[in-house]
Write a structure and sequence with these properties.
The chain is built from seven helices and seven strands; from the N terminus they run αβαβββαααβαββα. By secondary structure, the protein is of the alpha+beta class.
Length: about 180
Amino acid sequence: MVSSFDTRFRIECFADASAHARDLFNECFGASFPIPRDDSGLPIATPPANWRQYVAFYNWPDERREAVGFCNWIRHGRVYLGGGMCVSPTFYRRMPREHWQACRDRGGVAQLLLEAAFGGLTDADAWFGYCGDRKAYVVDTRAGMVPTRHPNVLVKWRPGVADAEKAAIEDAVAAIGPF
């Protein structure tokens, strides 16, 4: 009997997940892993203490633990900026069918990563994403993010933020550019 998807799948948050997700990130983007640092290339301060990196792990029947998803979050003022979302391009076709169905029924690895971040990063007013990919947009909106009036900028607000504040925060985040 195959164990359940929930017994094999875990999401963990790290201050620096490079030891766990570097190869996955490189495979997905062909780029260097976003190691938490002050000078991240963004036009805002990015002290390492403001970084949170979520990694989705899958434990195979042979007990091998594989990083199958990743998302980076940087605290900026009253919000988190999310980026670098990636999922192993071969994961779904390698997992047992029952696990694939369970994962699909819950929205997939990317949606599960977003939901984990929304549940864990509760010390801010909103979570922002910069999205130019159609598939990622579908996942982001399914997880509760909504488009702003700025191209490619999506947000999920915590309850209680005034509309007037939202507009100003959205403008400030959009001014950062891609993150």
